[in-house]
Amino acid sequence: MFAALGATPAAAGAATGGVESVGGVKGVGGVGGVGRVARPPRGVTLRARPASVSLGRRTVSTWAYGESLPGPRIDATAGGVVRARLVNDLPAPTTVHWHGIRIDPRMDGAPGYTQQPTRPGGTFDYVFEVPDPGTYFYHSHVGMQNDRGLYGPLIVEDPREPLGYDEEFTVLLDDWLDGVSGTPDDALRRLNASTEHDDTLRSDLLGGVVGELRHPYHLVNGRTPDAPAVFISRPGRLVRFRVINAAADTPFRVALGGHRIAITHTDGFPCRPVTVDTFLIGMGERYDFLVRLGPGAFPLVAEAEGKRARAFAVVRTTKLASTPNRNVRLPELNGRILTYADLEARDSDELPRPARRVTVTLGMRPSGNEWTMNDRLANDPMRLRVERGETIRIVLDNQSPMWHPMHLHGHTFQLRGTGWGGPRKDTVNVKPRERLNIDVQADNPGEWMFHCHNLYHQEQGMMGTFGYGPQPPGLGHSTHGNQGGQGGQGSRSDRGGRGGNGTPAGHAGQGVHGGRAGHGGQDTRGGRDGDGGHAGRGGDGGRGDGARGGQGGAGSHGASRPDKPAERPTSRRHRREADH
Ligand SMILES: [Cu+2]
What residues form DSSP beta bridges with 240? Predict the structure, then answer.
């Protein structure tokens, strides 16, 4: 049940194998290890640290997991367990959030909600089941850290994958400014000091102004368009692309030159396949598509919607074809574009009909730089209280002048209209003046973050909670930097199973999301106990699958190397060897 990456059981050794040592399987870049048989990984170490990373032509100073951008691909199998040790070598506290996973709340990396951030010099062992297959990612959830290099893909395989395809690639999209035009915290300070919005960043598709700022670069798998990532395949292959938008402020319009594509999943969950030319992906969303590749070399373009800039990569199936121009005009980008109304959940993923509804109004304060949920800011957040087991309809009513990609932690809701059983998702774009219904089944008790995935909006207040089950004692979100409660919050690697776990005791009642101008970005510290992640034990999870038991549930892969941009596929049938 814990099988992942084809790992054999009973690998010995500490859980600190590190991404470096278990690389060499295959992955986003996978260059180093193609054809070699790696030792079965016992887990992955994510060492968050200041690093110099290459974006292709340019090297920047940033914060990253190890030396790679994106962080290592972590693979798991549905029903299995992911083990990841965070080692914090940053000069600031940090956490890892496993975006989209129906996770044990104590492993959710939500600072001030279910765990204290891990202090500089500290470690935290994330150990959790991954119940649902699909395309996910992980990222820091502290302040502006996610707009640095602290993100990577998390792919959960379906042991009974119904789709037949030959190979797959992971495509991480990002907007980048760190080390080029200051830091993300600098950018937030500038935004907080201003009440204006850049009216030149506009998209009809998103109903007006699309973003807060222009990032100097847009990346595919950590690379700029002038030194693009290259995905190598063969003509005639049926390929699955897993596209993840890890950007802070940029929606992308994605197309593959010369091809129509079949959308098969969004936010990890399958949908009835839809053939389109292009699709829009908001921050935090994921889309998987299938395409049968023709012969040649094709531009994979992710246009920064409304920003007149793009991320760019190359899909190559023949050696001799000339590389497409990175500024090429793609008719597909103006072809048939996917809409939410095109997407339908599988019958088996339909949620029960909701018995009641609540409205969440998305708003902007007259200041222009504070974003609200039901007129509340993050420092005194909106709290939706629900009953365990119920299905509730949340009407997202956007009364603000900008679109918002709204993300709910710990659940996958269903987008529903009249007579329409829309897709299961965990992140949904809501345009200005739009009302969208999302139905949520309360099947994973906890106190969950519910927020805009525009990182700048999140930090400017657009953060609420969705909670049920026993409320963690001391939960409170006082103003930024205050620390209430105490740090004795549990949940580390020695928990067992998820069912029946109590809520962690001694929750840190600290407000890490002061929504207002001028707060200090990622400095959420407040933990006074030696190591934010490890004080105390939570709940009654019992022991069992701690750092010692069982076999590796998560593997990792080296990411693309600066000096060797070719992206090797992950073959479904031959996971350990390159077949070209
Ligand atoms: Cu927003």
Answer: 168, 290
Three-class secondary structure assignment of 335-359: CCECCHHHCCECHHHCCCCCCEEEE
**Cβ pair 432, 207 in contact under 8 A:** yes
d(CA 65, CA 74): 12
Give residue 125 CA to ligand 1 midpoint distance, Å.
31
DSSP 8-class letter at 18: H
Span from the CA of 405 to the centroid of ligand 1 (angstroms): 6
- Tokens matching residue 122: 């500290």
Gap from CA of 446 to ligand 1 centroid (Å): 24
CA of 442 to the centre of ligand 1 (A): 24
Distance from Cα 557 to the centre of ligand 1, integer Å: 32
Report angle CA 338, 569, 572 to the nearest 5 degrees.
85
Residues in the chain: 580
**Rounded distance, CA 170 to CA 73, Å?**
9
Instruction: Count other Cβ atoms within 10 Å, centred on residue 92.
Output: 21
Cα 216 to ligand 1 centroid, rounded to whole Å? 20
Rounded Cα distance between 503 and 250, Å, is: 35
pTM (2 d.p.): 0.78
Q: What are the backbone angles phi and psi of residue 334, rounded to the nearest 5°? A: -110, 15
Q: What is the pLDDT along the chain (580 residues), one digit of tens a residue?
A: 222 222 222 222 222 222 222 222 233 332 222 233 333 346 899 999 999 999 999 999 999 999 999 999 999 999 999 999 999 999 999 999 999 999 999 999 999 888 899 999 999 999 999 999 999 999 999 999 999 999 999 999 999 999 999 999 999 999 999 999 999 999 999 999 988 888 899 999 999 999 999 999 999 999 999 999 999 999 999 999 999 999 999 999 999 999 999 999 999 999 999 999 999 999 999 999 999 999 999 999 999 999 999 999 999 999 999 999 999 999 999 999 999 999 999 999 999 999 999 999 999 999 999 999 999 999 999 999 999 999 999 999 999 999 999 999 999 999 998 788 899 999 999 999 999 999 999 999 999 999 999 999 999 999 999 999 765 544 443 323 323 333 333 333 322 233 322 233 323 322 233 222 222 222 222 222 222 222 222 232 222 222 222 233 333 333 333 334 567 666 544 332 222 2
**What is the residue whose two structure tokens read 């790679």?**
68
Tokens of 160: 């009974």
Question: Whole-angstrom Cα distance, residue 304 to residue 311?
Answer: 7
Residue 71 in 3-state DSSP?
Answer: coil
